[in-house]
Amino acid sequence: AQSVTQLGSHVSVSEGALVLLRCNYSSSVPPYLFWYVQYPNQGLQLLLKYTSAATLVKGINGFEAEFKKSETSFHLTKPSAHMSDAAEYFCAVSGLFGNEKLTFGTGTRLTIIP
Amino acid sequence: EPEVTQTPSHQVTQMGQEVILRCVPISNHLYFYWYRQILGQKVEFLVSFYNNEISEKSEIFDDQFSVERPDGSNFTLKIRSTKLEDSAMYFCASAQGQGSYEQYFGPGTRLTVT
Lengths: 114, 114
Description:
Low-confidence stretches of chain B: none
Shape of chain A: globular
Mean pLDDT of chain B: 93
Largest interface: A-B, 23 and 26 residues
Order of helices and strands of chain A: EEEEEEEEEEEE
Distance between the termini of chain B: 37 Å
Largest sheet of chain B: 7 strands, mixed
Radius of gyration of chain B: 13 Å
Number of helices of chain A: 0
Structural class of chain A: mainly beta
Radius of gyration of chain A: 13 Å
Strand content of chain A: over 45%
Largest sheet of chain A: 6 strands, mixed
Number of helices of chain B: 0
Helix content of chain B: under 10%
Number of strands of chain A: 12
Oligomer: heterodimer
Number of strands of chain B: 11
Strand content of chain B: over 45%
Order of helices and strands of chain B: EEEEEEEEEEE
Shape of chain B: globular
């Protein structure tokens, strides 16, 4: 069974500062990992994915994440926060066969301070 | 850009009534999913569907729930007799398969059971 843990239900950063959202996974098989963003009253938009190719994954809107097997982590970062980044971010894991269900973390609400 | 669509955006129903939530997945996708998100909680998997049959379902997906792909484009979730605790945002997702693992989500249907 797979699971993800997101540390910090709320994160606040100043505009222009580094964004770091933490995600640790648990999986008995090599995982596929995803970050999704949810803007208020909208659906889930895929930011980026890890599917066992490069460990540093670049996504949309300047976000990237690094897969670290030794730390079972897949933290999301962005060098410089923008006001439009304010949203809820979900880390998710699926199993070896790719098209299996996604198991989501509890989410991290990112607030940007002007 | 192709996208998953869902109707209605908001459905209010009385306890005990049947509801059908509708989704139009991306046209060349082969895998279909339903998830739900109770207000303030994480996104939970309900069911996955491939090759005209359920491939996996969660404990939430009991006998009150059913899914159908009645034609080549629609994918529906039926709740036979709604309960108060079924109130949630329901998301449809689809994935292409064939080596592409991303799930694309619709904007959701907010179901309110009174």
